[in-house]
Design a protein that fits this description.
By secondary structure, the protein is mainly β. It contains no helices and twelve strands. Strand 10 and strand 11 form a beta hairpin.
Length: 124
């Protein structure tokens, strides 16, 4: 069973930077499709960024040009570099996956796996 763990959250002043990391474990040793979402209490979970198994990336309009998603140096990790942070970026950030690529074959999981989330707070 795939387990995801987010790290790197914290508090920062507006204009600052944070790097979040999502680490996958417990599942197959493959290239995971990783999505980052964020959620503010009372609101729906909002898409932030994705890195696909072919390394293509996608960003929400609200973060494009400020956030960068990439594979981490450690195996089975994905980083989300967040620059020029704004108070509106304050949220709990979650990473999730529902498929991975192993030796040219895509494996689809029976559900989307999510981490427990990491809090990001940006003060004005």
């Amino acid at each position: 069973q795939v387990q995801l763990e987010e790290s790197g959250g914290g508090s920062v002043a507006a204009g600052g930077s944070l790097r979040l990391t999502c680490e996958a474990s417990g599942g197959p040793a493959c290239t995971y499709d990783i999505n980052w979402y964020r959620q503010v209490p009372g609101n729906k979970r909002e898409f932030v960024a994705r890195i696909d198994m072919d390394e293509s990336t996608l960003y929400a309009d609200s973060v494009r040009g400020r956030f960068i998603i990439s594979r981490g140096k450690k195996e089975n990790t994905v980083d989300l570099q967040m620059n020029r942070l704004e108070p509106e970026d304050t949220a709990t950030y979650y990473c999730g996956t529902n498929r991975c690529l192993l030796r040219g074959t895509t494996s689809y999981f029976d559900r989307t796996y999510w981490g427990q989330g990491t809090q990001v707070t940006v003060s004005s």
